[in-house]
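task queued by scheduler; priority normal; single chain, no ligands, no partner chains; default sampling; output format set to structure tokens
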Amino acid sequence: MSAPFPFSAIVGQDEMKRALLIAAVDPHVGGVLAFGDRGTGKSTTVRALAALLPQIKVVEGCPYNCDPERPSPLCPHCEGDGTTPEGAKKASKGRRISAPVIDLPLGATEDRVVGALDLERALTRGEKAFEPGLLARANRGFLYIDEVNLLEDHLVDLLLDVAASGENLVEREGLSVRHPARFVLIGSGNPEEGELRPQLLDRFGLSVEVTTPNDLETRVEVVRRRDAYERDPSAFHERWAKEEAKIRRRIERARRLIGEVEAPEAAYRRASEICMALDTDGLRGELTLIRAARASAALDGKKTIEDESLRAVAPMALRHRLRRDPLDEAGSAVRVERGLGEVFAA
């Protein structure tokens, strides 16, 4: 199987690429929703990011990807925080793996998503054992849902519960298992095929609009690069290896720097001014705006959140949080830009 299309070789889609990099630097931003036209490379961009993510260290044999330095007290494999002799022994045996990026198919059953009784062990040994599902595999990584707006309601409810708590509780067939399930949720879809439930929409920290390029040169370059990749994937990857390495190092540097990025009082006030000008619901918009601006500043090597960082991330942090206005036919992106113009002109 050939490696995914290189992230650095993707033409256009700058906002989506920036949002994914922000989520890679700070998972607490809350995930990324990419809505737009079919065939614009949404899935390609997400899978390209997977190859860029720095490796993580996990407890040897742990199906929940626990960190050896901070085993989860919820993990049934690591036995709490590692303070028991057996737990400490397991935690000391760490290994490095690629950061998980797990696909959640639309047709997935609930058992496959949350986990279920291991039937093979139950039938062959008469033992009740838990077989972890996709949520377990996605812990400390990314969970990707293509066509997220078509996801069945019962799975949406399940994801909302897990996203809010950071843990997955499974009680069935005489089993009761609780395990850590903290992941960055990434969704993509075509708005023409249906809207996303408001409860799930609100759980995405960032929302980006992906459109078909409307200028000739960009379209030609997209086709040229894709054709070159399909004709010789190895040579294409080799050609972009240096650019990929640069982005990987950039993510690693930003992760180290983000703890040092300060948010001055002016940044907090500016964030609230923006949200008030746009009449966003609740205060989650301000919190996401500050977090995203901090990660964006870290990516740029800055140690202070400035107006430039706030303005750059405001559209992706706020466009899906606007109240519906039946008297305003302008799209959410236009309304955000209009609001930003008013705030920064003052």
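post-processing summary
- The chain has a mean pLDDT of 85.
- Residues 31 and 137 are 17 Å apart (CA to CA).
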